[in-house]
């Protein structure tokens, strides 16, 4: 399964009203952690601030901090915690009233990515549409946030295996990003990830490779060449390389992805397991069956130790783009 990292609240910083407290600086610190891929540090910072007794912590502020906490947990692979925090944030924004409409929309769209990962596609689509409707009521049609939210609709199509619809919307939005010269490079890059995975599913690995490379360039320029958000691009490239029988390039890409995961404390164990599982599939595809078997055993052992479900890439997924 494609573990798509959340991007809406990373790409669009949540601004809090200054009221003389230190809350805005906490939010800014959390955003800086996200920009560096330091999700565990962001989680600790925001969780500590939420525990502080503060009578001035109103519903809007609470919701904003909860979204940041949910985003950090999601990025760390703590899906149950992320789900709980997203729901609490959305509840806070809904009770706060119209003033928090944009924050509510962002939270709904971000939460949908988690729901898709848990295969709750109907709820994910409902929340994306609800968030997009709110954004369209408050922003101009070509606003970067609307383009970002619509790119999440394309990701939803992919999750539901509606590949023709996903491809059509991706291409439409790529043209819109170019025309509007939107500044949201992260959301723009993730749109190419969605398109790349659509190409994988529809047996076009060479086109997928080009899409993943474009994503890596955009996101790397925005966040740096070693940011965990790039993992989706690198794993996609590895699958495309394997489909093209470029096994050495696939292995190199996966080793690089593994080094990034290991160099970011707290990065999702599930992502590491997925990378190692894909490495074993590449070894098997290249005829190195003994090495593949050994790595598969290590993956199973790590999964048991971490209590992580299997998020590795299947042999069928690797083979699908060759047909």
Task: Summarize the structure in words.
This protein is mainly α and 323 residues long. Helices cover 75% and strands 0% of the residues. The chain contains 16 helices and no strands. The protein has helices at residues 8-11, 23-36, 39-51, 59-75, 79-96, 101-117, 121-138, 144-159, 163-180, 185-201, 205-223, 231-243, 247-263, 269-285, 289-306, 315-320. The longest helix has 19 residues, at 205-223. Mean pLDDT is 84; it is low at 8-24 and 309-323.
Low-confidence stretches: 8-24, 309-323
What share of residues are in beta strands? Answer: under 5%
Kindly state the percentage of residues in helix.
Answer: over 70%
Q: H/E element string?
A: HHHHHHHHHHHHHHHH
Largest sheet: none
The number of helices is 16
Radius of gyration: 20 Å
Distance between the termini: 19 Å
Number of strands: 0
Brief digest:
Helices cover 75% and strands 0% of the residues. It is mainly alpha-helical and 323 residues long. Helix 10 runs parallel beside helix 12, helix 12 runs antiparallel to helix 13 and helix 14 packs antiparallel against helix 15.
Give the helix/strand layout.
Elements: H1 8-11, H2 23-36, H3 39-51, H4 59-75, H5 79-96, H6 101-117, H7 121-138, H8 144-159, H9 163-180, H10 185-201, H11 205-223, H12 231-243, H13 247-263, H14 269-285, H15 289-306, H16 315-320
